[in-house]
């Protein structure tokens, strides 16, 4: 059964307190080569049947309107998980 | 610069470059500056500004930061002042927040501020950062924040966009305040279509300090270090101060969405503790918070308030995003940042404290006596200005004012013409409708999202008339705070409306047994470029200043928010007034409902047939017209004096003010507070004041309160009323046998009916839990 994956990240210019907290935890473990962390969301939309372009468009629309807050987040990717060829950027 | 520098790095617009290229076009209009303001900047500098200077002037000369349209009117708050008002005032208007002596060596600082436009664009972060910003104002005075409050106004309760804005705003406030560990002790919630595309989010914070801990933010002492600490500077809210606060929203089409700010309450909590330790150890001369206009504001204000000069190296600013330009660094509104002035000998100790709290710190420069604020970036001088021209001596406008032409017709359209209930069953039905009206209904759906007992010093909170916080755990000394505004009254008469807001907040504080002592205000209006709005503003400020003078309590600070409108339609004038009062011992506080049976219920004050602009007119008849209730500040003062004395002597067991919704709302809330019923009669009141039952139940005359008095204290209490010149009528008794409210010979409302009417409105619209 195909899965559409939607990835959402906080906008680059905005503070990401959760990412900052994770970066702090990594640094406390002594790993300083990792300089920064940004923490986003991954949605997996399970589909009954084929994923056609129309459904992908619907997923992109949902990603923009419902799954992300356009004021503070960007949709960075909408793609089908188990079919590499169907992968498509948002 | 050598030729080896990579071409991708933007070249700074230096002072030398500005002199060399006088005719370069600059986008002053896109930054919100008018052509004549841009010209004025060129005259001040004797050349064109660099792009960094232009960024600074544009944000600092915006309406939000410069008060250029309101200044000429706000002066009254400093002029209409008596010795009585100066007596307890330690720091007045113009600082980050006013400071008031409350006795026993304690002082409190409090302020209310708007975050309206950001809260419409991104309700959660907008409201959250509103709380964060006002709390930092309190810290910068040297005080420990002890509580917050919020005055909220949304569009129509049944509009779909209200279902977006309200949960976001409430979640944002509760998220930030709860994470900080500050109790949210009160405020208000109003719904009105005038706020549809322009909700009002006014946040108040209060802090406590010992007299000797008072700090003012200024850059004194040549050679002292200027230090930036807290969160890193990023690209958030760039231009927010000028663009968010000065532009209005248009319906339809893609809206201009500048980056909003994201708050981090955990970083702010650490910052609070870090600042308090810096103060305690005597390591700072002054601390300034960074809010609107960020580093531009902090450097120019600190320098203006100190020895007049400062030299800053912008490369020392710790960045979240290394690609930021100098202009962006100057304008960034990244949250949770502070700027301190530190003596060089104390710098190591200062850095040790910030390191201990894991707060990133960088030394940006030092204080000078040159009278110039000089900023370097990448080895070049990019700013060289007199800081006072940026922060203090900005443009001042005496904008045209005009009394609205529609006002006479609106004032003539009195609620007296509206049909009144023809029998008692209709009266009863109207009572239930008013109790469930959006602005009278129980708002605990919202307030329950907030932690209001954290820290353990909350003596009163919602649904009591005012919030009360214990300041001294040994002596019991405390303060009470209430915020109020009635935009409907202000639309009918901004002068009287502002005074009624003041009177109501004053009365709410008095109802707890506290002595009202000081005022902060957040003045929310439409566009100052509209002469009718400017007239409303001028009248409201005049009303407030005159009212404060008569009541003898000073305005200690606040904020003006203009451009609250959608398209051409301004909001109702909404001057939100916060009154702070002092109580010697919080054990003597008065709750808003009675707890014991067999007590007498007394109505204090006179009821007139005043229904214009009332909840009854709005809820039952969808009507707004006429003139607001008469303002009688002398009566308010007598009433407050009586309440303080009665609380002191323990003569009163509960007190609840009468305001929107009238007597019926006060009675219903009194019953619902602790579930003890009451029997009341209206006949005596109607005969004495010459009014009918509709006016008795729903009129919104000021200077009134409902109190419960134990039988044994009856004689003493009535004697006290006589001595204090307060009109008093016994209108009922508390009675555990009565289920709810029995309005004798007219109707009864069971406890269940009252609760259902009062509590169904908000949950029905927004679900059981906001943002859940």
UniProtKB/TrEMBL annotation, chain A:
Pathway(s) it belongs to: Purine metabolism; IMP biosynthesis via de novo pathway; 5-amino-1-(5-phospho-D-ribosyl)imidazole from N(2)-formyl-N(1)-(5-phospho-D-ribosyl)glycinamide: step 1/2
EC id: 6.3.5.3
Originating organism: Microcella putealis
Principal location listed in the UniProt entry: cytoplasm
Family statement: Belongs to the PurS family.
Enzyme class: ligase
Alphabetized Gene3D superfamilies for the sequence: Phosphoribosylformylglycinamidine synthase subunit PurS (3.30.1280.10)
Described function: Part of the phosphoribosylformylglycinamidine synthase complex involved in the purines biosynthetic pathway. Catalyzes the ATP-dependent conversion of formylglycinamide ribonucleotide (FGAR) and glutamine to yield formylglycinamidine ribonucleotide (FGAM) and glutamate. The FGAM synthase complex is composed of three subunits. PurQ produces an ammonia molecule by converting glutamine to glutamate. PurL transfers the ammonia molecule to FGAR to form FGAM in an ATP-dependent manner.
Catalyzed reactions per annotation: N(2)-formyl-N(1)-(5-phospho-beta-D-ribosyl)glycinamide + L-glutamine + ATP + H2O = 2-formamido-N(1)-(5-O-phospho-beta-D-ribosyl)acetamidine + L-glutamate + ADP + phosphate + H(+)
Gene: purS
Cross-referenced InterPro entries: PurS, PurS-like_sf
A cellular component annotation (GO) from this entry: cytoplasm
Any one GO BP annotation for this protein: 'de novo' IMP biosynthetic process
Name this polypeptide is given: Phosphoribosylformylglycinamidine synthase subunit PurS
Compartment annotation: Cytoplasm
GO molecular function terms attached to this record: ATP binding; phosphoribosylformylglycinamidine synthase activity
Oligomer and partners: Part of the FGAM synthase complex composed of 1 PurL, 1 PurQ and 2 PurS subunits.
Assigned keywords, A-Z: ATP-binding, Cytoplasm, Ligase, Nucleotide-binding, Purine biosynthesis
Automatic annotation (TrEMBL), chain B:
Domain of life: Bacteria
Organism, scientific name: Microcella putealis
SUPFAM superfamilies: PurM C-terminal domain-like, PurM N-terminal domain-like
Location within or outside the cell: Cytoplasm
Enzyme class, spelled out: ligase
Family: Belongs to the FGAMS family.
Protein name: Phosphoribosylformylglycinamidine synthase subunit PurL
Subunit and partners: Monomer. Part of the FGAM synthase complex composed of 1 PurL, 1 PurQ and 2 PurS subunits.
Residues binding Mg(2+) 1, per UniProt: 113, 559
Stretches assigned to the PurM-like N-terminal domain: 94-208, 464-583
Pfam families in alphabetical order: AIRS (PF00586), AIRS_C (PF02769), FGAR-AT_linker (PF18072)
GO molecular function terms attached to this record: ATP binding; magnesium ion binding; phosphoribosylformylglycinamidine synthase activity
Keywords recorded for this protein, A-Z: ATP-binding, Cytoplasm, Ligase, Magnesium, Metal-binding, Nucleotide-binding, Purine biosynthesis
Chain residues that bind substrate: 114-117, 136, 261, 333-335, 561
Domain Phosphoribosylformylglycinamidine synthase linker: start-end pairs: 25-68
Residues the entry annotates as binding ATP: 67, 111, 521, 558
Pathway: Purine metabolism; IMP biosynthesis via de novo pathway; 5-amino-1-(5-phospho-D-ribosyl)imidazole from N(2)-formyl-N(1)-(5-phospho-D-ribosyl)glycinamide: step 1/2
Role of this protein: Part of the phosphoribosylformylglycinamidine synthase complex involved in the purines biosynthetic pathway. Catalyzes the ATP-dependent conversion of formylglycinamide ribonucleotide (FGAR) and glutamine to yield formylglycinamidine ribonucleotide (FGAM) and glutamate. The FGAM synthase complex is composed of three subunits. PurQ produces an ammonia molecule by converting glutamine to glutamate. PurL transfers the ammonia molecule to FGAR to form FGAM in an ATP-dependent manner.
Location of the region described as Disordered in the Swiss-Prot/TrEMBL record: 1-23
Sequence positions that bind Mg(2+) 2: 137, 289
InterPro entries cross-referenced by the UniProt entry: PRibForGlyAmidine_synth_PurL, PurL_linker, PurM-like_C_dom, PurM-like_C_sf, PurM-like_N, PurM-like_N_sf
GO cellular component, one term: cytoplasm
GO biological process: 'de novo' IMP biosynthetic process
PurM-like C-terminal domain boundaries: 222-377, 597-736
Coiled coil: none
Signal peptide: none
Active-site residues, Swiss-Prot/TrEMBL: 64, 115
């Amino acid at each position: 059964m195909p899965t559409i994956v939607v990835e959402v990240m906080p906008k680059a210019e905005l503070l990401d307190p959760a990412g900052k907290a994770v970066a702090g935890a990594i640094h406390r473990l002594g790993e300083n080569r990792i300089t920064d962390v940004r923490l986003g969301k991954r949605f997996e939309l399970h589909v009954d049947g084929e994923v056609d372009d129309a459904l992908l468009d619907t997923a992109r629309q949902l990603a923009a309107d419902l799954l992300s807050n356009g004021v503070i987040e960007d949709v960075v990717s909408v793609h089908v998980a188990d079919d590499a060829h169907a992968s498509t950027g948002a | 610069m050598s030729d080896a520098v990579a071409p991708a790095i933007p070249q700074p617009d230096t002072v030398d470059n500005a002199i060399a290229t006088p005719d370069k076009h600059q986008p002053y209009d896109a930054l919100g500056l008018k052509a004549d303001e841009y010209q004025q900047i060129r005259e001040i500098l004797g050349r064109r500004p660099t792009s960094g200077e232009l960024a600074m002037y544009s944000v600092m000369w915006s309406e939000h930061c410069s008060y250029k349209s309101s200044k000429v009117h706000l002066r009254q708050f400093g002029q209409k002042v008596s010795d009585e008002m100066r007596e307890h005032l330690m720091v007045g208007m113009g600082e980050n927040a006013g400071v008031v002596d409350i006795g026993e060596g304690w002082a409190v600082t409090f302020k209310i501020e708007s975050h309206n436009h950001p809260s419409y664009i991104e309700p959660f972060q907008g409201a959250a950062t509103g709380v964060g910003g006002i709390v930092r104002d309190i810290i910068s005075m040297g005080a420990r924040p002890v509580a917050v409050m919020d005055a909220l106004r949304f569009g129509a309760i049944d509009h779909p966009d209200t279902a977006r804005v309200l949960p976001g705003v409430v979640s944002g406030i509760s998220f930030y305040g709860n994470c900080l560990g500050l109790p949210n002790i009160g405020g208000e919630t109003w719904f009105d279509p005038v706020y549809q595309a322009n909700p009002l989010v006014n946040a108040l914070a209060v802090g406590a300090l010992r007299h000797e801990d008072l700090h003012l933010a200024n850059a004194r002492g040549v050679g002292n270090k200027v230090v930036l600490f807290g969160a890193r500077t990023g690209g958030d809210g760039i231009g927010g101060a000028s663009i968010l606060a000065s532009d209005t929203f248009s319906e339809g089409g893609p809206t201009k969405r500048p980056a909003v700010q994201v708050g981090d309450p955990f970083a702010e909590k650490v910052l609070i503790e870090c600042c308090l330790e810096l103060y305690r150890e005597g390591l700072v001369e002054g601390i300034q918070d960074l809010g609107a206009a960020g580093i531009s504001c902090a450097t120019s204000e600190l320098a203006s308030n100190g020895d007049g000069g400062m030299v800053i190296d912008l490369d020392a600013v710790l960045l979240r995003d290394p690609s930021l330009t100098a202009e962006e660094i100057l304008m960034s509104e990244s949250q949770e940042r502070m700027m301190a002035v530190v003596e060089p000998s104390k710098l190591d100790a200062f850095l040790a404290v910030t390191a201990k709290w894991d707060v990133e710190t960088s030394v940006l420069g030092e204080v000078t006596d040159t009278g110039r604020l000089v900023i370097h970036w990448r080895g070049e001088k990019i700013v060289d200005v007199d800081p006072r021209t940026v922060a203090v001596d900005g443009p001042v406008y005496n904008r045209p004012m005009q009394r609205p032409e529609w006002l006479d017709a609106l004032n003539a359209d009195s609620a007296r013409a509206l049909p009144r209930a023809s029998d008692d069953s209709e009266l009863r039905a109207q009572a239930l409708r008013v109790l469930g009206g959006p602005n009278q209904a129980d708002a605990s759906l919202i307030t329950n999202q907030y932690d209001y007992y954290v820290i353990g010093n909350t003596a009163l909170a919602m649904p009591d008339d005012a919030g009360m916080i214990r300041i001294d755990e040994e002596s019991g000394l405390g303060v009470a705070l209430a915020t109020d505004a009635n935009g409907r009254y202000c639309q009918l008469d901004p002068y009287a409306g502002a005074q009624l807001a003041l009177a109501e907040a004053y009365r709410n504080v008095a109802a707890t047994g506290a002595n009202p002592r000081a005022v902060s205000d957040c003045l929310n209006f439409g566009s100052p470029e509209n002469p009718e709005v400017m007239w409303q503003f001028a009248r409201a400020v005049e009303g407030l200043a005159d009212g404060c003078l008569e009541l003898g309590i000073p305005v200690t600070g606040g904020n003006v928010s203009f451009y609250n409108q959608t398209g051409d339609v301004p909001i109702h004038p909404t001057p939100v007034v916060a009154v702070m009062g002092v109580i010697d011992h919080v054990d003597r506080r008065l709750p808003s409902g009675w707890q014991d049976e067999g007590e007498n219920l007394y109505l204090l004050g006179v009821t007139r047939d005043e229904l214009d602009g009332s909840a009854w007119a709005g809820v039952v008849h969808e009507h707004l017209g006429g003139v607001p209730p008469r303002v009688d500040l002398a009566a308010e003062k007598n009433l407050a004096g009586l309440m303080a004395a009665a609380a002191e002597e323990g003569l009163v067991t509960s007190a609840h003010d009468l305001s929107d919704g009238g007597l019926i709302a006060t009675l219903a809330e009194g019953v619902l507070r602790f579930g003890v019923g009451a029997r009341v009669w209206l006949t005596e009141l109607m005969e004495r004041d010459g009014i009918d039952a509709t006016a008795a139940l729903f009129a919104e005359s000021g200077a009134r309160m409902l109190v419960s008095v134990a039988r044994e204290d009856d004689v003493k209490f009535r004697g006290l009323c006589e001595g204090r010149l307060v009109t008093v009528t016994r209108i009922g008794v508390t009675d555990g046998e009565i289920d709810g409210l029995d309005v004798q010979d007219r109707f009864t409302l069971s406890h269940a009916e009252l609760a259902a009417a009062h509590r169904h409105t908000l949950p029905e619209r927004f679900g059981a839990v906001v943002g859940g």
